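Hi C.,

You asked whether I'd gotten around to modeling the 79-residue construct. I have! Everything is below, sequence then structure, no commentary in between.
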Amino acid sequence: MAFAKRIIAMTPVANSVRLPDFPSTPPIGWTVKAQEDQIKVDAIVPAEVFETAAQYVTALMRPMPAPEATTAPEAVPIP
């Protein structure tokens, strides 16, 4: 979630997008094994993570209150 918030903060709509924090879930586990000709990745994702993610996305799809009005920065003349 912190990554998504950092990306949004770099966009022009940063002041109009507010993501709620993602609820706590059990940890996700993974392993990576690199060999000369392949990379193998295994992941263990508890069902609760998927259930929580579904609830979170459903909540994000609900209408949110309008953001506070902000003013655009003044244009800078190009020399």
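If it helps when you're writing up: The helical segments are 2-9, 47-61.

Thanks,
B.
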